[in-house]
């Protein structure tokens, strides 16, 4: 899909946040400092485009913690590839100066 | 907890946007996140207000998310249907729609204009690199708290050595006569030290800027504007230009973003000489850039410590003084801020009034469509579905209002530009993306404000089956809106009234001189050719002679600083019967050098002694004339004539020969100051103001006197030529503009409120038709019927007025900064507003109430 090439800055931030271990919507907001009205539409778009997938966390775990279950997001293979490509591009631009560390693996 | 409830309610409202297939999961995710967030905050011990904000803010984003999902699934489960239905229903009620859209549009337009101005003045970044780190560095003196005083030249070197500052520049304003072919232009100029442009992060377009040590001082940097307009934008680095009759080499051109000092179009190196180099003269304005990583607090502490050291080291000149860095924006907006804050408050109030008004209208419309909703409910429409329909309708209305408001606002801003006589280059309000974004937010908020109350009444209808109680609910809710409108409008009207009284007080102030048929302009005599006092005096003689030779000139005179044009020089002085050190206690006086005809030309009354005359020449006895305030304060009942005073610089006793009436030097609002006039010949100045009294329209002689100056010396130009009448009138433009704005907003608010009052009364009449009919049938008099119908609204009006007056009194001290000669609690204003508003309210109520009186009992009983 040509979409990968057009990864917007916000989409990149969200993907990068997920890859860095911020798996819940609100955690991503904190990590990226983007507003909820930005992060969530981006998440929905990334999910539509197959770059991330979401699931509900284990109901019993949430119960033990006495709270409703949260929905978490993880990178798909395609999302991981798109992120790597973007990071490589940034590093190419940066030349021999260090720019963005490549995170290994998107899924915990 | 309120914050949680609001956030959950927002999520539920936003969920109506989400396609049904996704809705349950969507709501679950958002609520789980909010729950988790709230608990985390609570465990961290965050305060409940901050927790509420931290919950409500992301919940607002849910609307964006919901909207996005909706757009991704268009037409799905009826949103599109809602939209078309809303549009169709508005088309069916064109008058309601037009009225609502226009009302909201005007309310939003007022906000657009004010937001654009506020953004331009207070928020938009200045065109400097890291503008938020640029400081104006001033001296503060214990005796003059809050006054920004200039620095001494040696202070600049000390500040440069400070670690808190990356660079420091000193600047003085000096106009130049620029020779271009056979004409001479007067241009504003800056005398600056090196690093002037670096401090603001401004790089030259061509050439270079000043070096730390400039070998040849005759170099000049041009502004882009002057470079293009006067020199056609050619590469002219290395060329010579003529300033004040001397040649200067052009070394570079800088972009228009360099606007320090204000109005400067070229810059030459600052090279103070003599006394100006010492600590005795405080005259330099300084700007600095904070060093990397230094906060404003740290900078303040560092410069304060530096100031304390200087005060210890040089007690003679720097005792009780210290340095203070102030963000450049704060300095530039200090004078506008109170007015802008007041305006922002006014337009927000106006928008609230508009929303309250629309809420009433929408509620009445909903009441009219009750059967439609009942039928849809009976056919199985869910509560959410109807709520969504309602929200869609409100949003459609709000977005039309927003579009109209934005358009009107852009026009209004254009119109405003023509009303404002002058504004600094950095201030250029425009409707940009962030203003548009604010309008969208305003739009959404207003949709919620005016749309939701009606939705709640409707959704309660299931529980309140009785038509009667339905009616009561609506009636009382509409009353609340009318009450709010009355209270808010009262506040606005009182503010407008206070401003009108301030303006009339201010324009009634006697400036102390005649402005009619007077015209004035400035000439700068360059030191290169007018370096000696003799030369200055000779020039002034010839200038006055040639000017007065014109048949249309009554008289002409010279003054160093024209009133309303610029502040006069402040001097320290002591009287012959005081010790010399008394100058420390005596307040400073404004000093002006004037030609003998000044007082008569300006119509300034000589109250005692004599005016200055030709015997007061350079070789004559040194004399001064003082103003009435000076005489009263220092001589009281004694006769000041014959007393002697001396200035601290060039100390020599001068005899007081006359007392003249006070004049306002800086503007009508200025309090009386101490003024001293000396004969021009005894203290000539290089910068002079020519003031001419004409026997004809003074504008007609402007060209003539400009030519006189040019013919006397082709290197000179007469600048800033203006009618003195205009100078006085323009001096109050800020207050005048603010007054007009408040007046317009106030009138609009009252009209809206009147419509609201009329609406509720006519509704009362309709609902009580039957009752009124029976009373009329029983012989009730028309006065009695009017009381019956008007009693309710009268109570609301009275309560609203009281609430409005109380709030105005409470908020009044905020307005003190823009008022003149009137207290926020001014009883005349308050009583006038209350009586006037009550009259308007009564009229608005009476018009529909008349109908009640003419009700025919037979028709009334048949109607039900």
Secondary-structure class of chain A = mainly alpha
Helical content band of chain B: 40-55%
Instruction: Please give the number of β-strands of chain A.
Output: 2
Q: Determine the N-to-C terminus distance of chain B.
A: 47 Å
Strand content of chain B: 15-25%
- Given the structure, what is the number of helices of chain A? 5
Question: How would you summarize this macromolecular structure in one to three sentences?
Answer:
The complex is a heterodimer of chains A (108) and B (864). Chain A is mainly alpha-helical and 108 residues long.
What structural keywords apply?
heterodimer, A: 108 residues, mainly alpha, two-stranded antiparallel ribbon, 5 helices, 2 strands, 52% helix, B: 864 residues, alpha+beta, 14-stranded mixed beta sheet, 8-stranded mixed beta sheet, 54% helix
Structure commentary:
The complex is a heterodimer of chains A (108) and B (864). Chain A is mainly alpha-helical. Chain A has helices spanning 9-19, 25-32, 36-48, 59-64, 77-94; strands spanning 52-56, 71-75. Chain A is 52% helix and 9% strand. Chain A starts with 8 loop residues before the first helix and ends in a 14-residue tail after the last helix. In chain A, 30% of the residues are buried. The model of chain A has no long low-confidence stretch (mean pLDDT 84). Chain B is α+β, with helices and mostly antiparallel strands and 864 residues long. Helix content of chain B is 54%, strand content 17%. Chain B is built from 27 helices and 26 strands. In chain B, β5 and β6 form a beta hairpin. Chain B is globular, with a radius of gyration of 35 Å. Chain B starts with a helix and ends with a helix. Mean pLDDT of chain B is 85; it is low at 460-469. The A-B interface holds A 24-26, 29, 35-41, 44-45, 48, 62, 67-71 and B 25, 28-29, 31-33, 35-37, 39, 57-65, 68-69, 72.
């Amino acid at each position: 899909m040509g979409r990968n090439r057009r990864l917007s800055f916000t989409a990149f931030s969200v993907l990068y946040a997920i890859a860095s271990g911020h798996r819940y919507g609100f955690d991503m907001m904190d990590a990226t400092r983007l507003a909820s009205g930005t992060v969530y539409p981006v998440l929905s778009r990334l999910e539509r485009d197959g770059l991330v997938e979401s699931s509900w966390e284990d109901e019993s775990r949430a119960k033990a913690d006495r709270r409703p279950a949260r929905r978490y997001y993880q990178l798909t293979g395609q999302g991981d590839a798109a992120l790597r490509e973007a990071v490589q591009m940034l590093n190419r631009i940066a030349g021999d100066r260090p720019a963005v560390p490549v995170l290994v693996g998107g899924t915990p | 907890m309120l914050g949680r409830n609001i956030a959950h309610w927002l999520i539920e409202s936003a969920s109506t946007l989400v396609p049904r297939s996704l809705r349950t999961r969507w709501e679950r995710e958002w609520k789980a996140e909010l729950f988790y967030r709230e608990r985390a905050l609570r465990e961290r011990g965050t305060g409940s207000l901050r927790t509420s904000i931290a919950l409500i803010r992301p919940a607002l984003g849910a609307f964006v998310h919901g909207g996005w999902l909706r757009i991704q699934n268009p037409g799905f489960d009826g949103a599109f249907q809602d939209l078309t239905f809303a549009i169709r229903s508005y088309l069916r009620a064109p008058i309601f729609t037009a009225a609502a859209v226009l009302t909201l549009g005007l309310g939003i337009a007022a906000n657009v204009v004010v937001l654009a101005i506020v953004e331009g003045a207070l928020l938009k970044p200045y065109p400097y690199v890291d503008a938020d780190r640029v400081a104006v560095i001033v001296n503060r003196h214990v005796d003059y708290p809050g006054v920004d005083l200039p620095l001494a030249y040696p202070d600049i070197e000390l500040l440069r050595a400070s670690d808190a500052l990356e660079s420091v520049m000193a600047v003085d304003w000096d106009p130049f006569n620029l020779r271009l072919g056979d004409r001479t232009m007067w241009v504003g100029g800056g005398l600056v030290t090196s690093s002037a442009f670096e401090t603001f992060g401004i790089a030259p377009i061509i050439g270079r800027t000043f070096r730390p040590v400039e070998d040849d001082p005759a170099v000049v940097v041009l502004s882009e504007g002057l470079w293009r307009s006067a020199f056609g934008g050619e590469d002219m680095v290395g060329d010579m230009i003529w300033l004040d009759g001397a040649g200067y080499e052009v070394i570079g051109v800088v972009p228009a973003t360099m606007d320090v000092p204000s109005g400067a179009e070229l810059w030459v190196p600052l090279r103070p000489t003599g006394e100006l180099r010492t600590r005795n003269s405080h005259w330099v304005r300084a700007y600095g850039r904070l060093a990397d990583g230094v906060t404003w607090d740290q900078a303040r502490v560092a410069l304060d410590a530096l100031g304390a050291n200087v005060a210890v080291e040089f007690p003679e000149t720097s005792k009780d003084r210290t340095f203070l860095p102030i963000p450049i924006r704060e300095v530039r907006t200090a004078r506008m801020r109170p007015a802008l804050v007041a305006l922002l408050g006014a337009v927000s109030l106006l928008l609230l009034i508009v929303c309250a008004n629309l809420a009433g209208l929408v509620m009445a419309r909903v009441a009219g469509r009750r059967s439609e909703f009942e039928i849809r409910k009976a056919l199985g429409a869910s509560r959410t579905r109807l709520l969504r329909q309602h929200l869609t309708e409100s949003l459609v209305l709000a977005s039309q209002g927003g579009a109209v408001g934005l358009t009107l606002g852009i026009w209004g801003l254009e119109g405003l530009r023509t009303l404002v006589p002058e504004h600094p280059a950095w201030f250029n309000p425009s409707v940009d993306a962030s203003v548009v974004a604010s309008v969208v937010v305003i739009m959404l908020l207003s949709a919620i404000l005016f749309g939701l109350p009606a939705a709640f009444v409707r959704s309660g209808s299931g529980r309140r089956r009785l038509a009667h109680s339905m009616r009561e609910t609506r009636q009382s809710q509409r009353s609340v809106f009318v009450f709010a409108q009355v209270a808010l409008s009262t506040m606005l009207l009182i503010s407008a009234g206070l401003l009108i009284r301030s303006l009339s007080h201010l324009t009634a102030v006697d400036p102390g001189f005649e402005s009619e048929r007077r015209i004035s302009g400035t000439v700068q005599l360059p030191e290169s050719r007018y370096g000696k006092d003799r030369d200055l005096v000779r020039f002034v003689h010839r200038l006055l002679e040639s000017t007065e030779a014109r048949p249309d000139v009554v008289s002409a005179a010279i003054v160093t600083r024209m009133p309303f044009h610029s502040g006069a020089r402040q001097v320290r002085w002591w009287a012959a019967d005081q010790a010399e050190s008394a100058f420390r206690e005596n307040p400073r006086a404004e000093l002006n050098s004037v030609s003998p005809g000044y007082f008569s030309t300006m119509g300034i009354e000589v109250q005692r002694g004599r005016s200055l005359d030709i015997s007061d020449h350079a070789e004559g006895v040194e004399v001064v004339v003082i103003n009435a305030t000076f005489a009263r304060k220092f001589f009281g009942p004694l006769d000041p004539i014959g007393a002697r005073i001396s200035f601290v610089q060039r100390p020599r006793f001068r005899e007081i020969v006359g007392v003249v009436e006070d004049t306002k030097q800086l503007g009508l609002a200025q309090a009386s100051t101490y003024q001293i006039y000396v004969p021009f010949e005894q203290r000539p100045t290089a910068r002079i103001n020519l003031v001419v009294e004409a026997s004809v329209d003074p504008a007609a002689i402007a060209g003539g006197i400009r030519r006189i100056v040019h013919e006397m010396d082709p290197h000179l130009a007469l600048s800033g030529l203006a009618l003195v009448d205009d100078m006085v009138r323009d001096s109050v433009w800020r207050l005048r503009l603010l007054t007009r704005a408040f007046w317009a907003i106030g009138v609009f608010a009252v009209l809206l409120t009147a419509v609201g009052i009329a609406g509720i009364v006519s509704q009362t009449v309709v609902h009580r038709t039957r009752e009124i009919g029976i009373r009329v049938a029983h012989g009730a008099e028309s006065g009695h019927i009017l009381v019956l119908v008007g009693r309710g609204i009268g109570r609301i009006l009275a309560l609203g007025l009281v609430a409005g007056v109380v709030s105005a009194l409470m908020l009044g001290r905020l307005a003190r900064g823009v008022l003149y000669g009137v207290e926020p609690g001014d009883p005349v204003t308050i009583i006038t507003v209350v009586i006037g508003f009550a009259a308007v309210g009564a009229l608005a109520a009476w018009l529909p109430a008349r109908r009640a009186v003419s009700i025919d009992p037979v028709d009334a009983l048949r109607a039900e």
